[in-house]
Design brief:
alpha/beta; 588 residues; 6-stranded parallel beta sheet; binds thiamine diphosphate; binds magnesium ion; binds flavin-adenine dinucleotide; globular; single chain
Length: 588
């Protein structure tokens, strides 16, 4: 239990060099870095660290699987912008972290993972629970360390925090041998400070590039801003908004960019890409200028690159030089932190008239509204779109929504309208099923005063459902919507469209999710019709503890529009008219 006395003792370590064990140095350095919460699971090779925890004012959440610890650290970071921390033992504990580390890597999320390893004297002997976790995680970390001396722990931890959050953020792993945890060394927090970070390579955007970008913006007739996750990571929401409003440029968002620009803003077009809005993709294909802000032209965003935005000049602003000309060749590259680059660009931008272009985009929207499932008559069937739209309406769009991966994830992006950054937490690049429940635990831990909703599929929810027990142990108020379509829906959709409806291994039998929640002491409800949705959402919100709603939705609905692999961005499979709606027979 943390006490005022222990807090003072550990803070004293930060100012006066003191002899401590390696385990104590680890915690003292984490305290110095501002860490208040960690997510982990103990075991033999990390026991000295767990033993020392009682002396430090850090809250430890005991997870049910180490993958959950990495996702919790990730969700904590995505919700708060701080570095999330996960801890595991050697061997299977460490390997269980890997999916979570790769998830953070693909979406550039700053987390620090700490693993114990066998004693340095037996490293490389296939000792009990020994794995080469630095070798295993080399391709999925921004950097990693193997530490075998107590005196190296503080500098490694401080450096790890700097690496995780600087420039393009990402995960860092520190593997610490057991003897290093047990040995003692002089702990000097100040002396362990890393050298100031210098962007590498230190390529400043040139004056001529800024001038060229400003000229392209001034002369464009059909410009579109492509708003990505880098806006949120840079904290460049104001600057992007200023650019859009001053030059009257409409904004298309990536999945991970949602919330970087308010959905209700007249210049907001919505999501681009494979399951983006049809008018957004058409606007991109018709544009004469794209201004990519902190986005990396993922293949889910471009469709086939051969025909991507053929009429457009392209400006790419990104902190990572490796992203420039990687997927899409651009005309002007501005390499640096987005907020800083835009601060320099904005004085060169004057107001311009985009009325004709904005009207043309409005024109394309009409057709989409007719096909929008929200506007189709209520035939007594429950669609995921209805559920998510209602959750958005009832929560006033103010919740943090954490999704899993699949159809429900795409419907969330289409029907929950995000006004603020960090209000959507989702695995984009790796697309990790099982992400939602643990990431929501991380988000709620970071933001205890926010309303947190999990939106998960029946498949992905089962991958990490063990973390329900963590929710109960931590007494977290998290609302869980399981979008239960009885299928691995997104894969079923691909089988429907591209494999002649051969539903091989996608129908899925699930437990009674309400009973499963009940077994953990979590209240729940099953909902089968639209009329029941609002009442259930209200019940969840007013319940004192966590609450699960099992939404039995239409089984064979698909996400539209869809740009199939190899197609151009404007060649979308569209939702059939209402007469062609696929509806499953009522269950007996
Ligand atoms: C089932 C499924 C379907 C999907 N469908 C779609 C879809 O239809 N549409 C869609 O958009 N996505 C979709 N995705 C997500 C997609 O795979 C990518 O994850 C997403 O498009 C990446 O968005 P991003 O480029 O904005 O973010 P990231 O991949 O996080 O890239 C961020 C970029 O910002 C840069 N950056 C970071 N910090 C800064 C800074 N301080 N200053 C400047 N630059 C910075 C980084 O270097 C990087 O280039 C889907 C995912 C799944 C799982
Ligand atoms: C760990 C993992 N395994 C497999 C996949 C491939 N995959 C992507 S979506 C999906 C189906 C998800 O089903 P469900 O969770 O029920 O969500 P739904 O699509 O039905 O909304 C699968 C299997 C994945 N993304 N992640
Ligand atoms: Mg499903």
């Amino acid at each position: 239990m943390e006490t005022h006395a222990t807090t003072q003792a550990s803070n004293a370590h930060l100012t006066t060099p003191t002899r401590l064990t390696g385990a104590e140095i680890l915690w003292a350095t984490l305290v110095g870095e501002g860490v208040m919460d960690v997510f982990g699971y103990p075991g033999g090779a990390i026991l000295p660290v767990y033993d020392a925890l009682r002396k430090f004012p850090i809250h430890h959440t005991l997870v049910r699987h180490e993958q959950g610890a990495a996702h919790m650290a990730d969700g904590y970071s995505r919700a708060s912008g701080k570095v999330g921390v996960a801890i595991a033992t050697s061997g299977p504990g460490a390997t269980n972290l890997v999916t979570g580390i790769a998830t953070a890597m693909l979406d550039s999320i700053p987390i620090v993972c700490i693993t114990g390893n066998v004693s340095s004297k037996v490293l490389g002997t296939d000792a009990f629970q020994e794995v080469d976790i630095t070798g295993i995680t080399l391709p999925v970390t921004k950097h990693n360390f193997l530490i075998s001396r107590a005196e190296d722990i503080a500098p490694a931890v401080r450096y790890a925090f700097q690496i995780a959050k600087s420039a393009r953020p990402g995960p860092v792993l520190i593997d610490i041998t057991k003897d290093a945890q047990q040995a003692t060394a002089l702990f000097d927090f100040e002396a362990a400070k890393p050298r100031p970070y210098r962007a590498h390579p230190m390529r400043k955007f040139e004056e001529s590039s800024l001038a060229r970008a400003a000229e392209l913006i001034r002369s464009a007739k059909r410009p579109v801003i492509l708003a990505g996750h880098g806006i949120i990571e840079s904290g460049a929401m104001e600057q992007v908004r200023a650019l859009a409003e001053r030059a009257q440029i409409p904004i298309a968002l990536t999945l991970l960019g949602l919330g970087a620009f308010p959905a209700s803003h007249p210049l907001s077009l919505g999501m681009m890409g494979m399951h983006g809005e049809a008018w957004v993709n058409h606007a991109i294909q018709e544009a004469d200028l794209l201004i990519a802000c902190g986005m990396r032209f993922d293949d889910r965003v471009t469709g086939t690159t051969a025909t991507y935005a053929p009429k457009a000049k392209k400006i790419h602003i990104d902190v990572d030089p490796a992203e420039i000309n990687k997927n899409i060749k651009v005309d002007v590259a501005l390499i640096g932190d987005l907020a800083e680059v835009l601060e320099q660009l904005l004085p060169r931008i004057s107001s311009r008239d985009s009325q004709a272009w904005l009207k043309a985009i409005e024109g394309i929207k009409g057709d989409a509204a007719v096909r929008d499932i929200k506007n189709l008559p209520d035939l007594g069937h429950l669609y995921a779109a209805h559920v998510i739209h209602d959750i958005w309406r009832i929560t006033g769009g103010n919740a943090i929504v954490v999704t899993d991966v699949g159809q429900h994830q795409m419907w969330e992006a289409q029907y929950y309208h995000h006004e603020t950054p960090r209000s959507l937490i989702t695995s984009g690049g790796l697309g990790t099923m099982g992400f939602a429940l643990p990431a929501a635990i991380g988000a709620k831990t970071a933001c205890p005063d926010k309303e947190v909703w999990v939106i998960a599929g029946d498949g992905g929810f089962q991958m990490t459902a063990a973390e329900l027990a963590t929710i109960v142990q931590e007494e977290l108020k998290i609302n869980i919507a399981v979008i239960n379509n009885g299928y691995l829906g997104m894969v079923r959709q691909w089988q429907e469209f591209f494999y002649e409806r051969n539903y091989q291994s996608t129908p899925m039998v699930s437990p009674d999710f309400v009973k499963l929640a009940g077994a953990h002491g979590i209240q729940g409800l099953t909902v089968r019709t639209r009329a029941e949705v609002a009442g259930a959402v209200d019940a969840a919100r007013s319940a004192p503890g966590a609450f699960l709603i099992n939404f039995k939705v239409e089984k064979e609905d698909s996400v539209y529009p869809m740009v199939s692999t190899g197609s151009a961005l404007h060649e979308m499979i569209r939702r059939p008219g209402k007469d062609a709606l696929v509806e499953s027979p009522e269950e007996k």
